[in-house]
Amino acid sequence: MRFFDRFSHSNARSARRLGTGLAALAGLAVMAAAAFPAVYGAMAQTAAQPQTAGAPQVPDWALPASATHKQVPPPKDFHRRTRTYDQKIGIFEAQSDIGGALVPGSASFDPATGTYTINSAGYNIWYTRDEFRFLWKKMSGDVSFAANVGFPVAENPPRDRKVVMVIRQDLDDDSKEIMAAEHGSGMVHLAERPEKDEMMNDMEYRIAGRSGPDSKLTVAMPRRIGIEKRGDSVSLWVSVEGEPMHQFGPPVEIHFKGPFYVGIGFCSHYPVTLDSGTFSDVVLKNEAGELR
User: Fold this and answer.
1) Does residue 66 contact residue 109 with C-beta atoms inside 8 Å?
2) Which of 167, 93, 75, 80 is nearest to 131 (CA)?
């Protein structure tokens, strides 16, 4: 199958980085895409539903985008306190419901298969604040971090839930951060919040392939994603079909003060609806150049 990458950039600074990153696509043909909306929650198919008495009250701005509703940034200075649980799980020291999602999340680890399953609600990991379940450990210095990712509950049509591999400065909902993410819709991206309480920027990639010259393009869901921190340079890494991981696009320059938080997370893109993401064969090393 031949794969093609479509990409977009949410700001001019990202666009300026493009030239240096095309060579890193490891032989994939690249097509410039029409601009994708920065509010990528617009892919969600479920319309806003009326709220009922006794249910958690969801702010209108946090309802998922649909044909009849536009998700917008949260009001200035809106925050919820993160809930943290000092429960070691696998290689991670603890876990948190970043942004105090209205429905608490959970997580499990199967040592026989090396699989983490994260269950979480949450309106998004975007704009100026986040809501998601986060399994983390504190680190300093360089980082190599990768995993096989997936969604155990199939959806048709797919929507914009996401599995994420994150480096965060703190556990507040508006933390400075950078993440590699794969969406249920097939898009992968490298997204950053350059400073605390700022809007996210990203570089987005959509991968599609043909099984023959006359076949239709079909979306490819990368099997494995990763993030590498080398000094202040952070890059997205991908394996589409099990081939060796390769860098996707140019790196982002962002500085973190050690110690910072490194971990895996999941967001359903629905404020009060739980969904699940999985991570397996997790590699987390305190040095660069060790992604596999």
Assistant:
1) no
2) 80
**Beta bridge mates, 133:** 97, 266
This prediction's pTM: 0.83
**Which residue, among 187, 167, 175, 177, has the nearest Cα to 227 in the 3D structure?**
167
Residue 53's pLDDT is 52
Residue 148 CB contacts under 8 Å (≥ 6 apart), including other chains: 223, 224, 279, 280, 281
Element (H, E) at 265: strand 260-267
Torsion 133-136-142-143 (CA) sign: negative
Distance of CA 107 to the CA centre of its chain: 17
Residues of the chain falling short of pLDDT 70: 1-54
Write the pLDDT tens digit of every residue in 2-51: 343 434 444 433 433 433 333 333 333 333 232 223 323 333 333 334 45
Contact predicate 213/192, CB 8 Å: no
Q: Is 228 helix (H, G, I), strand (E, B) or coil?
A: strand
Which residues 6+ apart lie within 8 Å of 68 measured at CB? 47, 48
Tell whether domain 82-203+222-285 is in CATH 3.10.270.10.
Answer: no
CA distances for 90 relative to 113, 240, 261, angstroms: 12, 26, 16
